[in-house]
Known about the structure:
The protein contains 18 helices and 29 strands. It is of the alpha/beta class.
Amino acid sequence: MFKFSTPKIIIALLFLFVLAFIHLFSHNFIDNVASDLFTKAHAKITKRIASDKVVLVVIDNKSLKQISWPWKRNLYSELLNFLEFEAGAKVVAFQNLIIYPDTYFPEEDAEFYSDLLKHNILINSFLLSGSDISGDILPHEYLDIFLKKTNVKIIDNRIQKTDISYKNVIKLPKDLLLNSKYFASSFIQEDKDEIVRNYVPFININGRFLPSLALSAYSMYTGIDTFVLYDDKFCSNDGCKTLNIPIIEKPSKDYIGNITNTFLAYIKWYTPKQTYYSHKAYSAIDVLDSYYALKNGNLPKINPEEFKDKIVIVGLNTDTSVWDFLSETPILTKQADVDVHAVVIDNMLQNKFMSVESRTISHIITAIFMVLILLGFKNFRTSLIFAFLLSCLYLIFFLCEFFSNVYVEPLSPIITLFACVFLKRLYSIITTDKTTEMIKRAMGKYISKDVMKKVLLDLDKLKLGGIRTVVTVLFVDIRNFTTISEQLSPSEVTSILNEYFSVIEPIIAKHHGVINKYLGDGALAIFGEPIKTERHPLNAVLCANEILHAVQSLKNKLVNEGKHRIEVGVGINTGEVFAGNIGTEERLEYTIIGDNVNLAYRIESYNRILKTQFLISENTYELVKDNVDVVKLSQVNIKGKSLPIDIYEVLKVKE
């Protein structure tokens, strides 16, 4: 049964709020950056080349060097004449070229508007406005005429219909409106970070749908003029066989900040062919020169066949223009707007758009990840490993979806997953610090602090078992203390032992030893395990030497206090032992077992017989002989040993 206190609940709720914030932040910002990097890399690696069915004619720096801006309207007529009548283009789309009356050469307007009547493949573009329909800005009669100037019919079959729409379009010159056959929206949608990732295939103005430049050009090129809008897709009116665009509907802002609902299609990008463009682009001045050459019977600079039966988008892209006709996209920092329209037309012709998976899927996956981490593992390292494996699986899932033309968030579930791991760890630290300290204080009075540290470092490894390892065992004992204790009261015995152990314990710890157990008036200490050190034999000898000096001071103190004096002896042996946890699953004890442990105990017992204080085995001596002065005691019979052994009395210890 879990026990929750109010502070723990508050901390848990705070951490859940932080996780939610991290997930939303990752979704709205980091995911976009990650998907952009992958899209760019994917386009370069796979070399996704745009088709040659869509080409660009651009009024660029080269064009403006020969004919300064603004251009007279007759130049546009000549471009149209070449593309439609000389080159045999199937569709020509003007992107934001003819929007306002010509204030520089007003006399050119009437002739240009009249000339428009003979062009059947031209699609002019319009801009959106944030103004309400009122007064003479855009009366309903004007909008009625405008709606008739489209080659596209859109049937609204949505179940959940919204009525939030754009307010208006920029009012066009009346003669331009009346004499042009087709109009379409040139609107390009940017995300919050001002990067173009989606396209608006049509716009909603007061409940009436108007096509985008790409949709209008596609319709004219294919002859498909009727489309159906569903809640999650936009299709050709043949059961979505020819065209099937996954769309999402979400609120966005128009040019002056009004909120509207926009229908977005996620774009599939192509590898750039040149600066600014992924489609083949021709300079407008070269097209005009080719037109003039043909009229004069000369060889044109550009073969008219380059445009035959193609969709041609004509637009402006120059750094001398006061208008901005460049957008940042996932594949180019500066991509010409005319090329963005061309990319979408290509997507439509190939019937290949990215569908965007519902955010609900991302939230569900993230929630599953969090549950697995929060409830599945207690160990931090195991949680990290599991999070890494989950991340790899999710990235494989992302790649499979991406190559299947489905976009899912690449990083937000992974970021949230690792945030969950670290916040869980932080929560554990915050909420268990006090409990752990209480355990340490309580258990530190019963078991070695070093053993306890080892246990607390990794509770998951608290089980039966151990290792065989070489250690140095030190046994220190008060001589004849059993006889002494019979002459003293229990309180006096306890007082002497407490002072004695208080003296030797810090000395053992100082030299990286661990008191394994107290044996009445004796103490068994281990050097080399669980505190790993290569010089454990020397540490044990130095420790014993310091204990003897400290006990001498304690003996003098006890005598001065009128208490019974004590004498101690030390025995040390180095050898292989079993070190680990023994007992049952319910009760464990960390200890060392083996003949080498018993040998240290029996060596110490010879201090009484030989009237010595400090004895070490031959094994220990061989490892510390450069640091000690000794007297060799040969052929000593040790209980449990079939043959006599050599032991050494330590007279002096050198560091």
